[in-house]
Amino acid sequence: MNAKIPNTDIAIGAYLDARMKDKHLTQVDIAKAIGRKAQSYVSDRLTGKKSFLISELDIIAPMVGLPDSLALIAASVGRRRVE
Description:
- The protein is an all-alpha fold.
- The chain has helices spanning 7-23, 27-33, 39-46, 54-63, 69-78.
- Helix content is 63%, strand content 0%.
């Protein structure tokens, strides 16, 4: 069964990927910050295969220059075109 990947997950992943490059952060850096051992955990979320937890986004947001998960989500979704 192939479920459609939610647009929000795709937008968050794309936004974070771009900000991580700007800040010279790796997937390993993010994984360590959110208490995960595997870089693949972050990879699955950046590609939209799985969703980040809000609590994880609260940790990641300041790493990319945003105050919290709500600001990160707003910035991410603001980047995509609403159809």
